Amino acid sequence: MRLTMIGGGGFRTPLVHAALLRDREPGRVTSVALVDIDPDRLRTMARILAKQAEGVADAPTVTTHTDAAEGLRGADFVFSAIRVGGLQGRAHDELIGLSHGVIGQETVGFGGISYALRTLPTAMHLAELVKRVAPDAWVINFTNPAGLVTEAMARVLGSRVIGICDSPIGLARRALSALGLAVGPNVEADYAGLNHLGWLTRLRVDGVDRLPELLGRPDQIEAFEEGRLFGAEWIQTLGVLPNEYLHYYSYEREVLHSDQLASQTRGRYLLEQQTGFWADAGRAPDPLAVWEAARLDREATYMATNRDSVGMGERNADDLVSGGYENVAIALMRGIAYDEHSRLILNVPNAGTIAWLDDDAVVEVPCVVDATGAHPIPGAQVPDFGRGLVTTIKYVERETIEAGVGGSRAAALRALAHHPLIDSVKVAHALLDGARATFPELSYLY
């Protein structure tokens, strides 16, 4: 199989490559094309992957391309992981948000909408390019906000674009670990909602739901990250396990206060860290070791202000393990390419799964994967208390898509003004004006 990675010079590429190296099954990926607009990063990434592949027999061949059409030719699968505006854009979003008293995180609220408005024109161009150059390829979208971008690209690619996020499987893995269990073929996690806005509602092991057992033990709840982040009492009150990103909604005031007190935003921190990483890796004899050190630092400081807002302190060693999106991606590819049926939590069109959302709304739910694609499993249950939030955020996503695809400034304003983390129409106006003044690429909004 041939895999093309759009944004292949991105920091997480070695995670995917490591998973490809571990895959020794017949029909595995044998060719990887890295596509990126930055030739220097591509050269450094190729060196990192070469170091990673040392001693691995029959490692996939890796080629680099700055021409997307060239890199897409012959692709069976396409990973889309782009960041329009780079980390500088993320840092600007955070500062614009904080200057108006709102959270600026890159996938929720103002930050998510601004990021999407920068990204959607490029994502739609990519979808058209894939349709023209590699019409038989399947696109696996990692680009954030993942559900929103997947839904927009589906207008061009239909069911051949599927979104992936590692938050749900990471949550399930940590919950299982608190019970002394591990992810395996005997485990079925029931999860429902939207990307970065969902709940783990059941956790069946050998057909038995073990979630009530976990919810009955405060010590077990607070043995893993989400349990400490939300607190055992609140999780027991909910009766389900929330995705970590729901912390921005449940503790908005505390997170905003922590963000305001921080010496620098997460985006600024990553921008400085990544600038140093690329410089060091570009000249290091062992760029893989430089990457590993930077990756551990990123994981250790992940959602730091959220943890500070509730007094959590440092992350536990078990929480530093990657959520495993790269393994989900390989299982998805194999399921489609070789009809290897698997059960995965993915971002796909609703198709009646959540009864009160329309069929085309992209949701994050368990799916069965086969040669014809990913199919949501009927019966996904959003908790009653979450219905209003899911409905509102889906409206916000739709208005953001209308703005990003159609150039409607009014739609962008509606998205901002109706987001629960933005509490004033006047503030919504100011945020949009701030984004348009900061990002020349938003001049298409009229």
From TrEMBL:
Keywords: Cobalt, Glycosidase, Hydrolase, Iron, Manganese, Metal-binding, NAD, Nickel
Swiss-Prot/TrEMBL cofactor(s): NAD(+)
GO BP field: carbohydrate metabolic process
Keyword Transport: no
Binding-site positions, Mn(2+): C165, H196
Residues reported in the UniProt entry to bind substrate: R90, N144
Cofactor detail note: Binds 1 NAD(+) per subunit.
Occurrences of domain Glycosyl hydrolase family 4 C-terminal (ranges): 191-422
Site positions per UniProt: Increases basicity of active site Tyr: E106
Keyword ATP-binding: no
Gene Ontology molecular functions: hydrolase activity, hydrolyzing O-glycosyl compounds; metal ion binding; oxidoreductase activity, acting on the CH-OH group of donors, NAD or NADP as acceptor
Residues of the active site: D166, Y245
Family: Belongs to the glycosyl hydrolase 4 family.
Protein name: 6-phospho-beta-glucosidase
Taxonomic lineage of the native organism: Bacteria, Bacillati, Actinomycetota, Actinomycetes, Micrococcales
